[in-house]
Every structure is written in C-alpha cells, then in structure tokens.
C-alpha cells in the first residue's frame, strides 16, 4: 500500500484520533498471526506500529503474497461482518501494534462521520493494488520480484523502528512468499549484496534505497536480472 493512500491519510487526523479510541490495542511479535484465512470474525485491525503481510492460499495449496501494509492501514475491514470467510491470512512482519475494533463500533464510526465512501474507496484501492501486484510479480523475473517486495517493505517502515533499513525476512520466507526456490532467492540476495544494494552480513539491510527501487521498477525482461 502506498503510504500516501493509507486510511489515516484518507480520513484525516481528527477522525483517525477518534478511531484510535474505539479499539483495544494488541501487540504482536514478528510472524504472529493476526487473521486466519477461512475464519469468520466480526472485527478488523487498525495498524499503528510495524508492518504486516497479507497471504492468500489458493485451492491448490499455493501460498501467494497479496500485499504488505504498514502504520495507518486497516486490515480485515472487507470481511468484518462475519458473514463471509476471511480471504487471506495476515502476519506481523515487525513487532507490531494494532487496535482490534469490533464491526459494530466501526460501522457506527464511519456512519457518524459520513466516511462510508472513503472506506469503500480505500478498500477497493487495496484490492486493485493487490491484483496489480500479483500480475506484476507473475511476469517479472525473480530479481525484480524480490526487489519489489523489499522496496515495498522499506517504504512502509515507520519512524519508531530502531533500524528502518533492516528488512525482517529470512531467505526462506522470501522464497515461500514469492513462490521461488530457496536457491534462487539466495542467488538474488548474493547479487544484490555484490552490487552494493544490500549490506553484507546475516541480516537483510538496505545499503542503497534508490538502487533497490530502481531494481524493483524494472520490467523483468532485463537479461541481467536474475
């Protein structure tokens, strides 16, 4: 999600501050599950700290990364009534804080402030981004796919992170989330480190954000892109 189009930006600071009074704040460790695909729930989460990832498992059991979200976003608002199963599973990427808001409280809030159209615009915007992201990843080479995920995650780093350039993924997680082999991910990461895009060392840390974004925006047809 583009940070400039997060729900906080859509509704303004006054409405956002009131929304934060409606929920119960919860803290999640990295890799903790916030929402499970197939569940029937009557709540949504308002993300205030940290980043989350949204994963969908298809009928063949293949796991697909749909999006990465960050502070100022909502998650789970489309299925908040409990009348339809959750379409994706949501995990914390960083130590994450999110407010759990009940369906009825959220509905009263948006009705009271005339925000129904804003919520629909925001939610459908996320769906469009997810579809565009999946299409782009399906046609890009592995190097561009990995760079896109890393760049999107970097762009959503909030000011409270101790090291905003550190990307809290293991290589196995990148492989699983993007449907790649572990060996292919290792080769791409090694090349990004060799090129000075990523720092060396056991953790993933961005050395050159501008070059990472340039890699992410490649068409994926560059023969030099792994």
UniProtKB/TrEMBL annotation:
<keyword id="KW-0805">Transcription regulation</keyword>
<dbReference type="GO" id="GO:0005829">
    <property type="term" value="C:cytosol"/>
</dbReference>
<dbReference type="InterPro" id="IPR018490">
    <property type="entry name" value="cNMP-bd_dom_sf"/>
</dbReference>
<feature type="domain" description="Cyclic nucleotide-binding">
    <location>
        <begin position="7"/>
        <end position="110"/>
    </location>
</feature>
<dbReference type="InterPro" id="IPR012318">
    <property type="entry name" value="HTH_CRP"/>
</dbReference>
<dbReference type="Pfam" id="PF00027">
    <property type="entry name" value="cNMP_binding"/>
</dbReference>
<dbReference type="InterPro" id="IPR014710">
    <property type="entry name" value="RmlC-like_jellyroll"/>
</dbReference>
<keyword id="KW-0804">Transcription</keyword>
<dbReference type="Pfam" id="PF13545">
    <property type="entry name" value="HTH_Crp_2"/>
</dbReference>
<protein>
    <submittedName>
        <fullName>CRP-like cAMP-binding protein</fullName>
    </submittedName>
</protein>
<dbReference type="GO" id="GO:0003700">
    <property type="term" value="F:DNA-binding transcription factor activity"/>
</dbReference>
<dbReference type="GO" id="GO:0003677">
    <property type="term" value="F:DNA binding"/>
</dbReference>
<dbReference type="InterPro" id="IPR000595">
    <property type="entry name" value="cNMP-bd_dom"/>
</dbReference>
<dbReference type="InterPro" id="IPR036390">
    <property type="entry name" value="WH_DNA-bd_sf"/>
</dbReference>
<dbReference type="InterPro" id="IPR050397">
    <property type="entry name" value="Env_Response_Regulators"/>
</dbReference>
<feature type="domain" description="HTH crp-type">
    <location>
        <begin position="140"/>
        <end position="210"/>
    </location>
</feature>
<keyword id="KW-0238">DNA-binding</keyword>
